[in-house]
Design brief:
248 residues, 34% strand, Aminopeptidase, 6-stranded mixed β-sheet
Length: 248
């Protein structure tokens, strides 16, 4: 994890009687401020166990969930993990997802700017947005863009994703100003196409605040889950997680 956090571990591993590592469950830890309170998060990452040791797999999950004081997220559960998570108290995030073609729109509105230049990001972002950028600038999957117009900015974090083996999609992970993002959506999509070579955008209305024009909704969006005693869907985002750290 490139960001600073007091992490108790980086996950748990399984060893057999000979001391060989036969399984592991990775974890990403962070501290987030929600409603004025600092909350500790554990994001469940990759979970791999050798076939002959699969009956011990649940020990890894129970070890992670047995850590007190954490909110838990699982943002890329496999099909077999979903029902197990459900039994253990996880609930689903609203991951309704739109897919929109990125077209070479004209450079409108005038006076607006789209930049992925690290120097521009450093000089434009302020406060919590600047800290988020610095925490994620060295991650493997997160890509950063700032939209500016009329003295306002919108900080956008996205990742490239594959669908049916094709790396043609930009998945939006974070939008700091949904209103400005909506106003500059065409400029942003043109940037994705012309500067990053990405022909389509995947976006959850929960994340960007609206459904884009010319979009269609995916019939089977990828599931994401969380477990908390009191946090709600709107309290959970995709920063400080495997989605920003791992490309696939």
């Amino acid at each position: 994890m490139p960001w600073k956090v007091s992490a108790p571990n980086h996950g748990f591993l399984l060893r057999d009687d000979d001391g060989r590592v036969v399984g592991a469950y990775l974890a990403f830890y962070s501290e987030r401020t929600i409603g004025g309170q600092v909350r500790k998060f554990c994001n469940l990452g990759a979970w791999c166990v050798l076939p002959e040791q699969r009956f011990h797999s649940l020990k890894l999950l129970k070890a992670l969930l047995g850590q007190p004081g954490y909110e838990f997220t699982d943002l890329s559960p496999s099909g077999t993990v979903v029902p197990m998570n459900t039994r253990l108290g996880f609930t689903f995030l609203d991951t309704a997802t739109s897919v929109t073609p990125n077209l070479p729109w004209p450079a409108l509105p005038l006076g607006a700017r789209v930049s992925a230049d690290p120097a521009v990001l450093e000089n434009t972002l302020t406060g919590a947005d600047l800290q988020i950028y610095r925490d994620h600038a060295g991650t493997a999957a997160a890509r950063h863009v700032v939209l500016t117009r009329g003295g306002k900015y919108c900080y956008v974090v996205f990742r490239t994703d594959r669908r049916k083996g094709l790396p043609f999609f930009a998945s939006i992970l974070h939008v700091s100003d949904p209103e400005l993002f909506r106003a500059m959506l065409r400029r942003f999509q043109s940037h994705l196409l012309l500067r990053h070579g990405i022909p389509a955008m995947l976006a959850e209305p929960r994340v960007i605040g609206h459904r884009p024009p010319l979009s269609r909704m995916l019939a089977a969006p990828r599931r994401k889950m969380f477990r908390s005693a009191d946090l709600q869907d709107h309290d959970i985002d995709y920063l400080y997680s495997e989605l920003t750290c791992l490309s696939w």
